[in-house]
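Supplementary Note 2. Why include the ligand at all?

Several targets in our set were suspected to adopt different conformations when bound, so apo predictions alone were not considered sufficient. For every target with a known small-molecule partner we therefore ran a joint prediction. The input for zinc ion is given below.
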Amino acid sequence: MTRPRLAVHGHFYQPDRRDPFSGEIPPDETAAPARDWTERVTDDCYAPNALRGNFRRIGWNLGPALATWLRERRPDLHAAIVAQDDGTNAIAQAWHHSILPLASLRDRRTEIRWGIRDFELRFGRRPAGLWLPETAVDLPTLRICAEEGIRYTILAPWQAGIDGDLDTRRPYRVEVGGGHSVVVVFYDRDLSTAVSFDPAATQNADEFVRARVLHRLADPLPGGQAPLGLIATDGELYGHHQQFRELFLARLTSWYGSGACDPHLEVSPLGHVLSQAELPALPVMTIRERTSWSCHHGVLRWIVQCPDAVDGRWKQPLRMALDRLSGAVDMLTDALVAPLGVDPWEARDGYVDVASGYARPDAYVARVLAEAEAPSSNDDAPVGRAARGVEPARRAARRGRPRSARGSANLLAGILAAQSSRLAMFASDAWFWDDPSRPETLQALRFAAHAARTMDALAGSRLEEALVADLAGVRSSATGRDGAALYRLALTQVGQRPPA
Ligand SMILES: [Zn+2]
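The joint prediction is reproduced in token form.
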């Protein structure tokens, strides 16, 4: 029998703190001595973990917005982290960290495609795994993952669809319909909880292995296979939430690839373990629909009142206001883009190249418009293929409404920027905490404002007016402010004029 295996996965993620109007992160005094919290966490966590080589020995996902910031602002660190992926360490993450089971199917596919494409641009290979934000899952989400070529994901043990104890020491296969399946590894609850929330447990890595790990993995699986223990946590706890824990992580995983060996345990990234697994041999498991790792009430934390917040009554009106804005932005997108002969949703899926910083907006828009203009013999190109479906509408529209090339480019660039902000406003952070006066919710309101104002400027619509009216239903019990007042605050904080 081979030795039991231990794998560690770090979810490295920061909310996108950039002001959507300027593209810059505003300075934040509370992050001193750093300029802002993204820099602070980088100094506390990403840099020291990269220095220790930890990204080589664990599995991880790096949130695309954070990775984009790192590549722009800390290119050497970004390169060092990417270089530590040996082909099995890194997995993708849905781009904006929205709760996918709460998103429309089209948005879910876009988020997953953006995550995969971001990964390809960054790592130069296809991702085998994908991190679902907050591990929020349902079957349609897993099915889209499978259709987009994702092989595996990580879930909390209570997300398995069984009563009683789940043996988390082996991977499972979840059938998602259409002949597809996704490998799911449920992390070890006790080990992951201890690493996340019990600083005393992680003061000494050798003691951690002796006292907590070995006995959990002592018994072989039926059939004699080596058991697997997966520790999955936020990556930021290694050095930011808990000081010096990058040293714990380095010691815990030091046997991997070092030549030296702990006689009791084999430590390797999850992707390395799964690259050896025979998929058909995995036992079949079901999942609990609409569940997550940080709300024990399914995904209620991000929609309505659940016991995770003292007063969560603001959450539903906020989501409804943003859902309604989203619907209006999408209707205008369809109406304005169809006459250009472009499929707006294919164009949105491709816009990740801009969002991730690998293409300039004007160059991307020019390419999409050129492909739409090309004769149908050029249909091998993805956008050309998409445009074929809207050919009659395009011809009809051209006859009625001629538009200059520059006008078309400006229109499409504006709409795609608005769509990008409208996706960003659903990042889970806005609903995570107790009160909507927190910076995370104000940031979502800035993205909403950017989407609404951009569309209003292009279409002469009044989306912002409707948004502000809807936000009146949001109330912050901590400050006594309503959502419209928070919206004005969110804008004035970044030097934007508030609505009349
Ligand atoms: Zn909850």
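Residues 430 and 493 are 17 Å apart (CA to CA). The chain has two domains: 5-281, 303-493. Comparable summaries for the other entries are listed in the accompanying table.
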